[in-house]
Amino acid sequence: MIFRQLFEPLSSTYTYLLGCEHTGHALLIDPVVNSIDRDLGEIQRLGLTLAVTLDTHIHADHITGARHLKERTGCRIAVPAIDALPCTDLGVTEGVPLRVGSVVIEALHTPGHTSGHHAYVCGERLFTGDALLIDGCGRTDFQGGSAADLYRSVTTKLFTLPDEQLVYPGHDYQGRRVSSVGQEKARNPRLGGGKAQAEFEQIMAALNLPYPKFIDHAVPGNRQCGVCPTDLPEQMQAYCGRMTESVQG
User: Fold this and answer.
1) How many C-beta neighbours within 10 Å does residue 159 have?
2) Residues 116 and 82 sit within 8 Å (Cβ to Cβ)
């Protein structure tokens, strides 16, 4: 499998490129509208054709590139079926593999950051979106979030995977790129070390995070698979919204 980890600095978002060496078809996990040209350039450089975009959830800190990538390449848009977005081509469901050539994606419904959040397993790699970050996790106070649900998602699904499973998060704000299930189980300050659910809920309740500055633009745009809002302040329009200071927790 061809694999690339790509970074969008405004929202500190990781986009993941997975390609099938046999068919030349590629998949992008969590593409960002700001970085479409970069992503398409990398796909072209590798001699691939974009077949599918796949989002982990409805994002609050950036606009997905899914719609514009479909317009430019004819690729299909895949999102968690539970979100029931009418603009999508494929609804992803736990227990039903998504295949792009020889690349097989297994979806895990991991609510807590948002109610519809999914993580994705592909071989030795686990793409955790915002459910599990390196030494952290996504916030749980918006979009149907629930600390109790996130605790169960991580401890009963993600932490039951092999310790050597590589963890590729949706964001990192300190330049870290990859972790492992074993590392997060052992030392994640919010969820690791055998923390009880009550302690995790107390940690999340005490964060007192500011209201995300981009959420009121991002969520409606992402419910349309990546429409840049028309009411953005003028200074934001060139970038479809500058998403700094929208930390996800």
Assistant:
1) 18
2) yes
Which residues are registered as beta bridge partners of 180?
166
CB 101 within 8 A of CB 23: yes
Q: What distances in angstroms separate CA 51 from CA 47, 62, 103, 142, 171, one per listed residue?
A: 13, 22, 11, 31, 24
Question: Mapping DSSP to helix (H, G, I), strand (E, B) and coil, where does residue 216 land?
Answer: helix
pLDDT at 240: 72
Distance from the Cα of residue 113 to its chain's centroid: 11
Look at residue 248 and tell me whether its pLDDT is greater than 70. no
159: tokens are: 């932490």
Task: Domains for the chain: give ranges and CATH numbers.
Answer: 2-239 (3.60.15.10)
Instruction: Count Cα atoms within 13 angstroms, Cβ side, for 154.
Output: 34
pTM of the model: 0.95
